[in-house]
Design brief:
By secondary structure, this protein is an alpha/beta fold. The protein is built from six helices and six strands.
């Protein structure tokens, strides 16, 4: 299991949690751009990518860059047909930068933030990536419907 983050503070928190849980020998953490990760290899083993990019109260001036970097990673580094990605988002505006067609969307609320776990199954990149207008409309629809599906999902 490998973890990557561009921010050292986040990695420090993750390392502390891993040590306290006794899992630090099972996980390798690295700071930097995921596209520059040494040793990214497609070994035939399916990948599971879980990402918590900036959203809601965590949005910063580099939000666009963060989401574009995630899109590049999913599109270029992850093996098509062998990657399942789960992305946590609280912002349809941010999510549209992925330009992906979601497979599943699960509502979640933390504090006062309405969020979505968005699942993407990476197939052939030509099938998976949409033009930004179509992708934006689908993401916006997901967030508009969050309140109506929240009670169904929690019950």
């Amino acid at each position: 299991i490998a973890g990557n983050d561009a921010h050292g503070g986040s990695l420090s928190l993750a390392a502390h949690a891993l040590k306290r849980s006794g899992l630090n020998d099972l996980v390798t953490l690295r700071e930097g751009d995921c596209l520059e990760w040494p040793g990214l290899q497609h070994t035939g083993v399916p990948w599971l990518v879980v990402s918590n990019p900036p959203w809601g109260v965590r949005l910063s001036s580099d939000m666009h860059e963060s989401w574009e970097a995630l899109r590049s990673f999913l599109r270029k580094a992850c093996p098509g047909g062998k990657t399942e990605a789960w992305i946590l988002s609280g912002s349809p505006e941010a999510t549209k930068h992925l330009g992906l067609r979601r497979s599943q969307s699960l509502p979640l609320q933390t504090g006062q933030q309405d969020l979505r776990w968005l699942q993407y199954i990476m197939n052939n990149p030509n099938e998976q990536f949409l033009d930004s207008q179509i992708g934006s409309a689908k993401v916006a629809e997901d967030f508009v419907n969050i309140k109506s599906t929240e009670n169904e999902w929690l019950s």
